[in-house]
Amino acid sequence: MTESLTDRRARLLGPNMSTFYDEPVHIVRGQGVHLWDADGRQYLDCYNNVPHVGHCHPRVVEAICRQAGTLNTHTRYLHEGILDYVEALTATFDSPFDTALLCCTGSEANDVALRMAQALTGKTGVIATDHTYHGNTTAVQQLSQTNPPPGGYWDSVRFVPAPDSYRPLGGAGGMPHAHAFAARVQDQIDALNATGHGFSSLILCPFFANEGFPDLPHGWLDPVQAVVRKAGGVIIADEVQPGFGRVGTHFWGHQRIGLKPDIVTLGKPMANGHPVAAVVAPSDTMKAFRTRFRYFNTFGGNPVSAAAALATLRVVQDEGLQDNARDVGAYARAGLRDLATRHQAIGDVRGSGLFFGAEMVLDKTTRTPATAYVKALANGMRRRGVLLNFLGIHYNVLKIRPPMPFSRANADQLIETLDAVMRETPLA
Length: 428
Fold this sequence. Notes:
By secondary structure, the chain is an alpha/beta fold.
């Protein structure tokens, strides 16, 4: 009997290797905002932010090939590539961010950021939201309540309720919600100080992506910033998902919400699929880390990775992809709001730039999450050639996060297909 690809995968890679959809997709090729499976079927990619400037962008491919054909080594030798990239990268940040450490994954970046915070504060206590994800090293896995670590959580880790603009803490949105969130952070700071660990850092995604990207106004994190500063702690902004112009209005998610972090971490989309990540920080912070920790990463910042990252950044800038995200994202959200007039399951439409979606509910009055319905929608869209997924506190928010060249015509296809799938999918 011929062994299936899924069986072979399980045999060689081990069990519980997750795949998307009830019928996994066997992808063999990508170009721009499209993917093709082994049978030649084309899919509109409305999910993948890793190919940030589009699958197989020719400028990125050429940069990788050219550098791979010239030299690839590590940073214990001198090379201009990493320096050229860090200069270009830090130029997109506000002062005082002027240095960067390059590594390979967002997990590594967040792991390093936690150590930077320890170097600055001399403390070990960390606070995160209760529905976030910051990676899979031993340290950052401790920050995820959605994937509890074997053996339980360290006593130095504390959680606060994830912000939810649709069902806000205390029942009121806007700044009352912000002050309620800040009060929960203060409670956990007090708890960490009482244990003797002390408070080192608050780590969060400034777009709260995995939490369901709640609709939070500019300045919403001001009360939290005040609490953290008063306690002598450090704010780490995980920009792996909202960064590099994706939110449209700003180049970075923390700029959009008005957050002034101490450390910023980057990952997935940095080099359009080549494994590159970074920690960006002021020079004094980098100096404190380099003084207190011996850190070297064999592959971090290698010439090929640096070339891929620089090419990706230049494409974002040269092709106006941030402006495109702002325009097409607004257009697509308007399409979702129009759908909401015809489909009672759409309880809330939200997002920014090319990171948007809709929260589905069984009843708009009770706001009961339609979790099973959203999963059925994602599978229905896949069968009709559109790839997206879902997330959120109740796993009932459609997650739409396409490559940055996504067009209005692509948005039309997305909305028209979603309309058809919602019409044929029973709300139950």
